[in-house]
Design goal:
With 525 residues, this protein is of the alpha/beta class. Helix content is 35%, strand content 17%. The chain is built from 13 helices and 18 strands. The strands form 4 sheets. Strands 1, 2, 6, 7, 8, 9 and 16 form a 7-stranded mixed beta sheet that branches. Strand 8 and strand 9 form a beta hairpin. It is globular and about 65 Å long. Bound molecules: flavin-adenine dinucleotide. The site of flavin-adenine dinucleotide has 44 residues, from helix 1, helix 4, strand 7 and helix 10.
């Protein structure tokens, strides 16, 4: 098979907030190629509703934002990283305002700030309840005016080109033609977002299969803290299974939403003094526990006691989406279930996005910067993506590969395909997602984790064989990513014999000081 070769200065894998913001920070430094798996707006970014946490309120302070972040991170957030996050945050928000992002303003034209669970002050900058869509739209529009940026949609990066611990670009599959391209680049940024699709129920779109973590792991990068996966407590329950579940934003609870079981008991009373404004992990576990105890599929989130016009003004997107399912949120409670939402761990980076491999940066949800620790404070992730992708932009020129790549970097093309293999891919994908949900989900047990791991070790071997011997397809590439991520989450969860933040293991229900450290895994390559 012919392989097309393309050369560029910057290869950006992904087209969410991290990649687009990085692009705008290196815009005058060379040719930029963005590869993205589906359409350019198919990204977690596009679905973010709540907003971006940042200090703009005179009663607020960097110290307070930092304290909230560290408290939620349960002793595992890196103080220096959090300091950078909160202090550089407002400037990065102003950058994107200058690039065209329109946030909601109050009567005096100041940024309207929301308060979300875990935050001590109103500090969520937002654009109605469709912040991510506005950010994505504005940044895409901002890069359009530059002739040195190209975006290839429907291009799935599946392997990094590595030699002598340096990254020379990546291989990608053009999903629409089946063609393979080799992109040789002086600098590569992984900005592939999260991995919610590894779980049966998720708020993440179909692109979130953890490809960035998988390719970095296979290239020999350190991967950290994968056991900390955040489950959003409230996504819309629908009787029919969905590819992704629609999120009922935290902000709805921040603005007075209350949780009830199906008998009308306000159950958060029994779980946390802050009730519905307790941190996400507490609320998710509470919902999970009520559902398991009562054997039901959903609990209720109710905001109908608030003023109808205000509900429609503040939550137009949620209001409209729920109406599609004949639920009028201004008049009745919303059936909700928890779902996998955010990957706190990821590819280990320093405070400038550098990975262990020269020429390779990572930013956004795919990266581990040390900010989140054992749990992510709401609305800190868009901020993290902005702050650290901009910092990555600052070091990009110094981190570039200087010489040409060694010859003979082409992968083996001896591949075959049979119909059984497609069946196997679809079937195995379902099994991985189900096993992750049942055994490596919100509440964990040692024997369930071990059971999952035995299966995943076997799948890992089988899928690697399949990957090496089949024609490349999106199914096979994503399956390889999913099993890698499932394996990394489970292995990390097994090694943490305590409960901390998002990792709750019933067999080790307390925090244990000797585990106050990151879980770091690296493949020998
Ligand atoms: C429903 C929802 C609501 C959220 N609400 C908030 C919020 O209010 N506030 C907040 O701070 N955070 C929120 N988050 C989290 C936040 O949106 C994400 O963490 C953030 O957008 C991640 O940005 P990113 O650029 O790292 O990745 P993404 O925006 O996910 O972009 C990843 C990109 O990589 C591409 N890609 C993936 N794999 C490949 C591959 N192999 N080859 C080529 N391209 C690839 C994808 O197609 C996509 O373009 C929310 C997330 C969800 C799902």
């Amino acid at each position: 098979m012919e392989i097309k070769r393309i050369e560029t200065d910057f290869l950006l894998i992904g087209s969410g907030i991290a990649a687009l913001n990085f692009a705008l920070h290196v815009i005058d430094k060379g040719k930029i190629l963005i590869l993205t798996k589906k359409k350019r707006t198919d990204a977690n970014t596009n679905y973010a509703q709540g907003g971006i946490a940042s200090v703009f309120n005179s009663e607020d302070s960097f110290e307070s934002h930092k304290e909230d972040t560290l408290r939620v991170g349960k002793g595992l957030s890196e103080e220096e990283a959090v300091d950078v996050l909160v202090r550089e945050g407002p400037s990065r928000v102003k950058d994107i305002i200058n690039w065209g992002v329109e946030f909601t303003r109050d009567e005096s034209s100041a940024l309207e700030l929301w308060k979300e669970g875990g935050h001590s002050h109103k500090r969520i900058v937002h654009s109605g309840d469709f912040t991510g869509r506005e950010v994505e739209k504005a940044l895409i529009s901002a890069i359009k005016s530059y002739s040195n940026i190209r975006i290839f949609e429907h291009h799935l990066a599946y392997e990094l080109i590595i030699a002598d611990n340096s990254c020379y670009g990546a291989y990608a599959l053009d999903v629409s033609t089946g063609e393979i391209i080799q992109v040789i680049s002086r600098l590569t940024l992984l900005a592939t977002g999260g991995a919610g699709q590894v779980y049966q129920h998720t708020s993440n779109p179909s692109v979130a299969t953890g490809d960035g973590v998988a390719v970095a792991y296979n290239a020999g990068c350190k991967i950290a803290d994968m056991e900390f996966f955040q489950f959003h407590p409230t996504t819309l329950y629908t009787p029919e299974p969905q590819e992704r579940q629609f999120l009922i934003s935290e902000a709805l609870r921040g603005e007075g939403g209350r949780l009830y079981d199906q008998e009308g008991n306000r159950f958060m009373e029994g779980f946390h003094p802050k009730m519905e404004l307790a941190p996400r992990d507490v609320v998710a576990r509470a919902c999970d526990s009520v559902l398991k105890k009562r054997g039901e599929d959903f609990v209720y989130l109710d905001i109908s006691h608030e003023d109808e016009d205000e509900i429609k003004r503040k939550f137009p997107n949620i209001y409209r989406e729920c109406l599609k399912y004949s639920i009028n949120i201004a008049k009745e409670p919303i059936p909700v279930v928890p779902a996998a939402h955010y990957m706190c761990g990821g590819v280990y980076t320093d405070l400038f996005g550098k990975t262990d491999i020269r020429g390779l940066l990572a930013a956004g949800e795919v990266a581990f910067t040390g900010v989140h620790g054992a749990n992510r404070l709401a609305s800190n992730s868009l901020l993290e993506a902005l702050v650290f992708s901009a910092r990555a932009g600052k070091v990009a020129m110094d981190w570039m590969i200087q010489g040409p790549p060694p010859e003979d970097l082409l992968p083996s093309m001896k591949r075959r395909s049979t119909i059984e293999e497609s069946v196997l891919a679809v079937h195995t994908r379902k099994e991985i997602k189900q096993t992750m949900w049942d055994y490596v989900g919100i509440v964990r047990r040692d024997y369930l984790l071990n059971r999952a791991q035995r299966r995943f070790e076997l799948y890992l071997e089988e899928i690697e064989e399949l990957y090496k011997n089949s024609y490349l397809s999106q199914d096979i590439i994503e399956l390889r990513s999913l099993i890698t991520v499932a394996y990394l989450i489970t292995r990390s969860a097994i090694s943490r014999k305590e409960s901390r933040g998002l990792h709750y293991n019933k067999d080790h229900p307390d925090e244990n000081e000797s585990y106050k450290k990151h879980t770091v895994i690296r493949k020998e390559v």
